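re: that complex we talked abt at group meeting.

here r the seqs, copy pasted straight from the sheet so there may be weird spacing, ignore it
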Amino acid sequence: MSNLRLINETTASSVSSVDITDVFSADFDIYKITINNSDITIKDYSEVRFINSSGSVISASNYDIANYELKTYTSFGELRATNQTSLPYMWYSSNETASQGSFNMWVFNPFSSSSYTFVLASNGTNFITGFGAMANKTIGVLKNTSSITGMQFFPNSGSFDNILVRTYGLRVDS
Amino acid sequence: MAGKLIQVATETVTSAVASVTLTGIDSDDVYMVAYNNLKSSVDGDAKIRVTKSGTPDTTSNYDRANKILRNDTTFSNDSGTNETFWYLEYIGDDVSEASNGIMYLFNFSNASEYSFLTMEITSSDNVNPTLKGRQGGAAHTVASASDGIQIFPNSGNITAGTFTLYKVV
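got the structure back, here u go
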């Protein structure tokens, strides 16, 4: 059996946000999240917020992020943000036919109440007609030691036409 | 990266140690190292070496090329050749400080090839304070088999962290 264990699979259509709840626990310290087929109604980045053990979405200004944009059509870009109310710039998408790429995110220490929650993310590529392809390499942190049990995905503007989120736990056998 | 992850070795640090060594690479599969909540007793860079028959190789054969991502200022390039280690990331022991990462290891067991590594690191430093990470690759330019890695701080001890080596099959 693989040490990468599927915990949750969520699909949604025509929604402004998707909450993935009760997926982070003491069973794992490291999680892998994949998103396929995230068409949104307009061209924009999607964002992430975490959900604490009380079920509340954390929207306090405690998120930092650094995102490296690798583009086929212009110079590479840098996106940096401090004390945000979410992790912005996670992946870029639209509802153009055949334009979607993939999104992969590792989450570290979410359930721990003694450490921050860290993120490593990469966006395979997307393709925007008239421009070209772009990939992203991203790091992020929630500067909060709350015990995190879930996450919320939402586009910066518009809504998800559809989205498929899979959450895996990376098992460590002692 | 498709396929299963099969655990090969793991170590969780609960009391201070000078280094962590993960060994058990014995096939030409790709291997993955995942670690979280790495802290050290003294603020400074964590470093990494390959091991040969369980012993870290300290010769000057470590090359690297990385992009440094951070939230407070312009990203930078970091590269080096013929050094005695690869850099992992700056660490400390404050509650706000920790390093976490995923690394893939290639050709380690092949005695006719160099050992290659890719890394994605996300960390925080309470001194600046800064979110900082490393994305890039590295090569150990010796055509001999490596069987693992050693992680160690620039000074002091590793005081926390869980480190696990998986085989990707």
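couple things i noticed - The mean pLDDT of chain B is 95. Chain B touches chain A through 36 residues (CB under 8 Å).
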